Amino acid sequence: MAGAGGGSTGPAVGGRHRGRRRAGGREAGCGGEAGGVPGGPVRPGLEALAQFVEREGHAVVKRPHKEPVEAVEAGPGEEQALVSQCALGTWSNNQKARRAKLTPGQLAQLTEHGVEWA
Predict the structure, then answer these.
(1) What is the pTM of this model?
(2) Please, is 35 exposed, middle or buried when counting C-beta atoms within 10 Å of its C-beta (0-12, 13-18, 19+)?
(3) pLDDT tens readout for residues 27-66
(4) Exposed, middle or buried by CB within 10 Å (0-12, 13-18, 19+), for 67?
């Protein structure tokens, strides 16, 4: 029975980016897929991973985990600190699934943060 227990088993309404929000205390992605500019898309996720490892002492991130990440945004006249929620568990699982596409440098960065499969 779909919807039992408050959840739905069907596809997300609004496409695959449903639930992804931007800065200002809202959910955002951690940097997207592997590939592209070397070190580019992996960097925001690595920053969230480093913060997680420093606090927790390990790099085993469960899929539903969201990591709060603070960023400073320059606005007209003053800087503003914004906190976003990085979907770190999803990002980590995606990196593992796409590890064949990661550059040696990206794999080395993951290894430096304690990721055992890298």
Answers:
(1) 0.64
(2) middle
(3) 446 764 443 334 455 678 999 999 999 999 999 999 999 9
(4) buried
pLDDT in tens, 83-111: 889 999 999 999 999 999 999 999 999 99
Burial of 108 (0-12, 13-18, 19+ CB in 10 A): exposed
Q: Please give the Cα distance from 118 to 32 (Å, whole number).
A: 18
Shortest CA distance to 16 belongs to which of 34, 36, 1, 32? 32
- Cα separation, 98 vs 72, in Å, equals 30
Alpha-carbon distance 32 to 84, whole Å? 15
